[in-house]
Design goal:
Shape: globular
Number of domains: 1
Strand content: 15-25%
Number of helices: 9
Distance between the termini: 34 Å
Number of strands: 12
CATH class: Alpha Beta
Order of helices and strands: EHEHEEEEHEHEHEEHHHEHE
Largest sheet: 9 strands, mixed
CATH architecture: 3-Layer(aba) Sandwich
Structural class: alpha/beta
């Protein structure tokens, strides 16, 4: 059985068991859930930067799911396509993923169902260098012991919507299992380092990225406008994982959801100011949303 080894442990998050658990607990305690939650959660959107910057935001989504669902059998994790240039969503369909907390088994039956739908292809190698799914796995392992995962890299094409819709349809037919879909994306990458600073490399530009550009994407996500997320990211450069977010919202819609709930929205510049007392000319947006 093949096992996908971690590539950013010790870099994006701690590489040892004890320190990884300690940091997860710190992030779960850092941000309280202060908005009413729905009766059930079918899907969520999380960021995927290093935990120092976005771990507490991602943790809010998993904490909300845990609050409502003690047992989750499988998490479908839709990831960003940072280095994968295929046109079809790529499924890691066999084996397991290793993290400092042990191994998470792939839900091979669910993988087969997704592949048989024609909405994705089997391509485990596409996941070799992708971090957007990996950084979510320890949260799942810690909060939902024994839960399986289904990692899928999702390019920002209309096939992302098809994938989400088909995944939702399959989940609707799996009444005996609780399956939650997670879309992994960061928001606007702003500043000279990212080659995107239409409002200048200033505090005002970073404020615009947060209050205007990110908000366009967040508002579409809250309304489950899956195709709109794809076009907004292409036009406004406000998400690196638009395909993942589109798949998650499409799945949520198929599962009967009509509205998302924003749990938190911040950016790396705000985190730096809070934790380090300094700011810079670059910023990356992060949001936590549940459906």
């Amino acid at each position: 059985m093949k096992t996908r080894k971690p590539i950013v442990a010790g870099q994006f998050y701690p590489g040892q068991y004890d320190s990884c658990v300690d940091e997860i607990n710190k992030h779960l305690e850092q941000r309280a859930l202060v908005v009413p939650l729905p009766e059930t959660i079918a899907a969520g959107i999380v960021p995927h930067a290093g935990w120092t910057f976005s771990g507490s935001v991602a943790g809010m989504v998993f904490s909300a799911i845990k609050q409502l669902h003690e047992k989750v059998h499988t998490f479908v994790i839709f990831g960003a396509a940072h280095g994968y240039y295929g046109t079809s969503p790529a499924v890691y369909d066999r084996g397991s993923w290793r993290s400092p907390l042990g191994e998470a088994s792939v839900d091979e039956d669910l993988a087969d169902a997704v592949l048989n739908s024609g909405a994705a292809v089997s391509d485990p190698a596409a996941h070799n260098a992708e971090h957007s799914i990996e950084v979510q796995v320890p949260f799942i392992q810690y909060l939902f012991a024994g839960a399986k995962i289904l990692p899928i890299i999702v390019p920002p094409t209309k096939q992302a919507v098809t994938l989400g819709t088909e995944t939702g349809r399959i989940i609707n037919g799996s009444r005996d299992k609780k399956i939650v879909c997670i879309g992994s994306t960061d928001l606007t990458h702003y500043g000279p380092r990212y080659g995107f600073a239409p409002m200048g490399a200033t505090a005002d530009g970073i404020r615009w990225a947060h209050q205007v550009n990110d908000k366009k994407f967040i508002d579409l996500a809250l309304e489950l406008e899956s195709e709109g997320l794809l076009s907004s990211a292409a036009e406004n450069c406000n998400a690196c994982g638009a395909g993942a977010a589109a798949a998650a919202t499409a799945a949520a819609k198929k599962l009967g959801k009509t509205k998302g709930i924003l749990l938190a929205h911040t950016n790396s510049n705000q985190v730096m100011l809070t934790k380090m007392g300094t700011s810079g000319t670059e910023s990356v947006g992060y949001a936590a949303i549940v459906f």
